């Protein structure tokens, strides 16, 4: 079998099964595991899948820059944002993450809501300027341009001093086996720190992020209390998350 044919077969199997187990596939095809793993490494370098221990999972399409990500699931994100905004109660302290869906969430908060919003996203902070009863605490640090958020030691130090009722987390990927993950090592650490200071972590998950993986784990799914997804997300994708005791809110 030619290399191109093998890679096409691997991608087709990944699309059908949602994962590749290198050992099983090598036995099925009569190929060495080294050959399968080499093909998987090359496909991963092209951004076509995410290598994990023992095989591969679908790569998240949410790895592009901010402008590119604004075009992904553009219809789903406002609905997810409205469902998230409906969870906020008066006088709560909430943390809104960075990212395209988080900006939509800031826009969706009722104009008369009284609460405190902590964020490390300048974009989110600016959206709340016209909310007279929302106290905004903006975390500073080095600007991570991919997500337009502050990161670094000063951001982590400030985050460690604040406890929140809800953390609305944006992610690149969710998977029952690999948890919540993202494409940058430092960003994963910042998100993990924010989640550790929150009573509840609510993940904003547009459909393309479900059952995908990114290189750096933020936390296992046991850290997540609720996932907000679009109303037409297939139940076949959601069932495993429900079985883990995670509440699913359909937007």
**3D shape:** elongated
CATH architecture of the largest domain: 3-Layer(aba) Sandwich
The radius of gyration computed from the alpha-carbon positions, rounded to a whole number of angstroms, is 19 Å
In CATH's first tier, which class of the largest domain applies? Answer: Alpha Beta
Count of discrete alpha- or pi-helical segments spanning 4 or more residues: 10
Number of domains: 2
And the CATH topology of the largest domain? Rossmann fold
Pattern of helices and strands: HEHHEEHHEHEHEEEHEEEHEEEHE
Identify the strand order in the major beta sheet. Answer: 6-5-4-9-12-14-15
Structural class: alpha/beta
Instruction: Characterize the main sheet.
Output: 7 strands, parallel
Beta percentage is 15-25%
Per DSSP E runs of 2 or more residues, the count of β-strands stands at: 15
Overall helicity: 25-40%
User: Span between N and C termini?
Assistant: 45 Å
GO molecular function: DNA binding; DNA-binding transcription factor activity
InterPro entries: Carb_Metab_HTH_regulators, DeoR-like_C, DeoR_HTH, NagB/RpiA_transferase-like, Tscrpt_reg_HTH_DeoR_CS, WH-like_DNA-bd_sf, WH_DNA-bd_sf
Pfam families: DeoRC, HTH_DeoR
Protein name: DeoR family transcriptional regulator
């Amino acid at each position: 079998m030619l290399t191109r044919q093998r890679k096409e077969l691997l991608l087709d199997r990944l699309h059908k099964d949602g994962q590749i187990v290198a050992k099983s596939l090598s036995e099925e095809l009569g190929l060495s595991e080294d050959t399968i793993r080499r093909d998987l490494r090359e496909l991963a370098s092209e951004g076509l899948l995410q290598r994990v221990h023992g095989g591969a999972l679908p790569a998240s399409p949410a790895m592009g820059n901010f402008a590119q990500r604004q075009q992904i699931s553009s219809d789903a994100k406002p609905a997810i944002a409205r469902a998230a905004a409906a969870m906020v109660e008066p006088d709560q302290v909430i943390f809104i993450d960075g990212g395209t869906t988080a900006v939509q969430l800031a826009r969706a908060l009722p104009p008369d809501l009284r609460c405190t919003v902590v964020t490390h996203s300048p974009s989110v902070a600016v959206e709340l300027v016209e909310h007279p009863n929302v106290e905004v605490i903006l975390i500073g640090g080095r600007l991570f341009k991919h997500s337009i958020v502050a990161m670094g030691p000063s951001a982590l130090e400030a985050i460690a001093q604040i406890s929140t009722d809800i953390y609305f987390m944006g992610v690149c990927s969710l998977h029952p086996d690999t948890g919540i993950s993202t494409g940058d090592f430092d960003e994963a650490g910042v998100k993990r720190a924010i989640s550790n200071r929150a009573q509840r972590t609510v993940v904003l998950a547009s459909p393309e992020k479900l059952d995908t993986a990114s290189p750096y784990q933020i936390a296992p799914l046991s850290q997540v209390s609720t996932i907000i997804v679009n109303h037409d997300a297939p139940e076949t994708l959601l069932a495993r998350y429900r079985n883990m005791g995670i509440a699913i809110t359909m937007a």
